[in-house]
Every structure is written in structure tokens, then in C-alpha cells.
Request: fold
Amino acid sequence: MTGFTAMRLTTLTDYALRMLIYAGTHHERLCTISEIAKAFGISQTHLMKVSQILAQQGWIDTVRGKNGGLHLSKAPQLINLGAVVRSVEPDFALVECLGKNNSCKLTGGCMLTYILQGSLNAFWQHLDCYTLADVLHPLHGFPANAAGGQALGRKALANIPIQSKV
Reply:
């Protein structure tokens, strides 16, 4: 099918989560934008914007200057993933009728709104069950642990069964 895009989080949210993961795995020190950019192969310019947003939202603290950097503003177990995504993701209107400027002619007589809102609620409910600490646990020693293990790749991640804490 051409012309369709998959439902997914914005790059901003993806990079924000990566930055938090990196800072969480290096909690003993300040992390620089440069090292995070290098670790993930991401533009430093993009990460500057991300760090500003995360700092404004209270997820990280930044220190300016020659020996500056960033670190988590609270313990990883206090950083709820659902709250992080809500704070940086600009819009979750999956279809027009879930958005602010709804002019759909089917509004009020279509079950699609109810069904999609239910799926979005399930998404949030699931994401709200997890904290940054849950993400960091298997990544101790990111990107490779002390035993020489490799970071999880897409294939390995695709085979991890989804388990809810609910």
C-alpha cells in the first residue's frame, strides 16, 4: 500500500527517550551532547533541541560550561515513560475526529472514534506501567556490558515478548 505512513512516535520523542536512556546508563557522571550524538549516530544540533525540551519539562538537569553536560533530574524509577512521551510528543490525534480541528462529517455517528480512542487509551495504559528503570535494567553497561555482550539489535528486540505490568 503506497501513500500510507505507519503510526509512530516522532523523531523528537525517539531521540528524547534515547537521551534519557543514555543519561540513565551513565548516571554517575555528566553526559555531553557530543558523546550521546556519537553513541547513537544522531546530529548534535537535533540533540541540543531535545535536551532543551527535556530540561524544560524537568526530565534532565543541564550544566553549562567547559565541564558541563546533562544528567537525569530524578531517579530512573521516578521517570514514567508515558509521562515522558506525553510531554514531548506534539499530537496523538490518530484520525481527524480525535483532533482539535475536527470537521469530519461522520462525527457522532461513527464508531471509529470510540475504537481508536480505546486503542490509544490502551497504549497509554501500557506505557504508563513502565519507568526508565525498566528500560535500563537489561541495558546495564550500555552499549555493551562488562562481559562483552552486544547491545540488543532490532531482531532481538522484535523477539522479546510483550508483558504488561498491569
